[in-house]
Design goal:
By secondary structure, the chain is mainly α. It has one domain (about 1-94). It contains two helices and no strands. The protein has helices at about 1-60, 65-94.
Length: about 90
C-alpha cells in the first residue's frame, strides 16, 4: 500500500511539474508573439522614416524652412539607423 501511495504522489508531482512547464512555454510563446509584433511595428516605422527622409530630400522646400527640415531629416536618418540596429539585435535574440 505504501508503494502505491508513493507512486501516486510521484505521479501528482510529475503532473504538477508538467503543468508548470506548459505554463512557462505558453508565457514564452506569448512574449515572443508580442516581441514579433513590436519588431514588425518597428520595421514599419523605419520604412516610414526612410520614405519621409527621401521625400524631404527629393523636393526641397522654400529656403526659410529648408534648413530646419534638413535637420529633421538628418535626425530621422540617424534614428532609422539606430532602430535598424535594434531590430537586428532583437531578431538575433530569437
Amino acid at each position: 500500500m505504501e508503494d502505491g501511495s508513493k507512486l501516486d504522489r510521484l505521479l501528482a508531482l510529475t503532473l504538477e511539474s508538467a503543468q508548470r512547464d506548459q505554463d512557462i512555454i505558453e508565457a514564452v510563446e506569448a512574449q515572443t508573439g508580442a516581441m514579433t509584433k513590436w519588431q514588425e511595428a518597428l520595421l514599419t516605422l523605419i520604412e516610414e522614416m526612410k520614405a519621409l527622409s527621401a521625400a524631404v530630400s527629393a523636393e526641397p522646400p522654400p529656403s526659410d524652412i529648408a534648413a530646419e527640415l534638413r535637420r529633421i531629416a538628418d535626425g530621422l536618418a540617424q534614428n532609422t539607423a539606430v532602430l535598424a540596429d535594434v531590430a537586428k539585435l532583437m531578431a538575433a535574440r530569437k
